Amino acid sequence: MNFSIERPAALYGILFAIPAIIYSALVYKKTFSLLMKSAKNKNTKEYKSIKKRVASRVALRTLAWFMMVFAFAGISWGSVSTPAQKNGSSISMVFDISYSMTARDCPNNLTRLEAVESYALQLLDNTQGTPVSAVLAKGNGIIAVPLTEDTESIKSLISILSPKLMSSSGSNLGEGINAALRSFPKTISNAPVIWLFTDGEESDSALENAIGAALKRGVGVVIIGFGEERETEIYAGDGKTLVKTALRSEKIKEAVRAANKKNLGGLGFSFIKGASAQFVDATDFGSANKVLASIKSDDGDKTSMSYETQPVDRHLFFIALGIIFFTLSFFASEFSLRGVRETLALSLIAISLSSCSGEFNESKKILAAVWNWNQKQYTEAVANFTQSLDEAKSNGDETIKQYALYGLSATYLMQNENEAALEKMNELSGAAPNKIRFAAFYNSGIIAQRQGDYQKAAELFKNALLVDPTNVRAKINLELSYNQQAQRAKESERELNGAGEISQDESNLQKSVFNRIREKDRQQWKNTQQEQKNTSPLDY
């Protein structure tokens, strides 16, 4: 699996979730502490449910943030082969310059490196205008000349090929091919080909894997063998130790066959002509033409179709996950799971009642009414519940009738039509399912509270608890009804007692105030009369 991250630094964005989580935890802890102080029962299921919903929202939104960070980071894994038209070719010439290439067993008493020099120069003369790079396959392999159309620089390197160009020991042909792959740009517009000049002697067995890696990228590999298959003695790198060397053609052919087999087995087709691996013996007649054929089609056209293996970008996948987690956070926090369960239960009950076509139609009406009720489309819900009730009465279906009556009462209650809601609740049978009986008592108690009849409300909530003793909301409303009833009784008693106790004091106070006001008025009248006597009459 090819796993890569385009922007690894973006992953630090995950750290921003830490202060957000801490802040949310502090805010909700403070909120819960206030709620718990005001609640008499600190272990109620209601508060536990709220805690779970809040924790779910924080977790889901944290996951959503992680997904967005991963999407921006450009995470990709897997690979896919995509067709691409290639114009022309690019060549990477890989030269094995290990000490085994100094063996003098080539025609005209040439060393293998001398034969490589003559052979490679002739190939270059027939590749005018084709970009070429040069790689030295010794040790880890290096790119000696990057991809260029200046073949003179390549020729200058070929003329001085020697094991002394690199101090590292050993011959790692696989690393030479990997270096050649690095010399090609990732978005190259040419069909890339690797030419490996070697005798097949290598320090490890990495050749097969390296060829396979090249084929997966759509890069053809041609291995040109030099030397004789009969072993020859040479001095090793220390200049003292004699070792035997030969052209390991069978070893090379086996690596080529295995790589081609894996490539075809995985994809079912070869990429293009020349993009497969092949072995060519330099001493065979017409071997140079076989090598040159890897960069030309049969008709001489340099345009070809290649299949490139590219990593699969997963940013859309992470964006989709982020949106899903963010959406789920609203459902986890804003909607009561209990209400959802009750709605689903009612829907499943309605579906289970569909044993025949008539009952199925009634069940569909119930489902439609429940949906309308949850969408707050109360007019449509009343219409569907009423139609379902009429059909149930005509068919004698008592179960559907009970659910329709309860649905109508609940809908009327949401519309503040209390009398109509009570009327439908009173029509419910005592043999109705427990959930409906509990809801009927509970809703009737709510109506009684609205009307100020707290004694009746307490009786109704008591009856609801007899059906479902575990319901916390009914317990709370029962306690509230008792408190309201007691408070009203105290207020009435205070009004009655107050009127008799303060009547005499209030009478004396009123007399005193009245006398004071009358005295003030008399004094003001005397002052006015005195002023009129001292003033002469006006002359009109």
Main beta sheet, described?
6 strands, mixed
Portion in beta strands: 5-15%
Largest sheet, spatial ordering of strands: 5-4-3-6-7-10
Number of strands: 11
Q: For the terminal residues, how far apart are their CA atoms? A: 122 Å
Shape, per Cα inertia axes: elongated
- DSSP summary: helix tally: 18
Taking pLDDT < 50 over at least 5 consecutive residues as the criterion, the unreliable ranges are 266-274, 336-360, 532-540
Mean pLDDT level: 77
The class by helix and strand makeup works out as alpha/beta
Q: How are helices and strands ordered from N to C?
A: EHHEEHEEHHEHEEEHEHEHHHHHHHHHH
Share of residues in helices: 55-70%
Cα-atom radius of gyration: 48 Å
Annotate the secondary structure layout.
Blueprint: E1 4-5, H1 17-38, H2 45-73, E2 75-87, E3 89-96, H3 112-125, E4 132-137, E5 142-148, H4 151-158, H5 173-183, E6 191-198, H6 207-216, E7 220-225, E8 232-235, E9 242-245, H7 249-267, E10 277-281, H8 287-293, E11 303-313, H9 315-334, H10 337-352, H11 357-374, H12 378-395, H13 398-414, H14 418-426, H15 434-450, H16 454-467, H17 472-501, H18 503-533
Parallel strand pairs: 3-4, 3-6, 6-7, 7-10
Antiparallel strand pairs: 1-2, 2-11, 4-5, 8-9
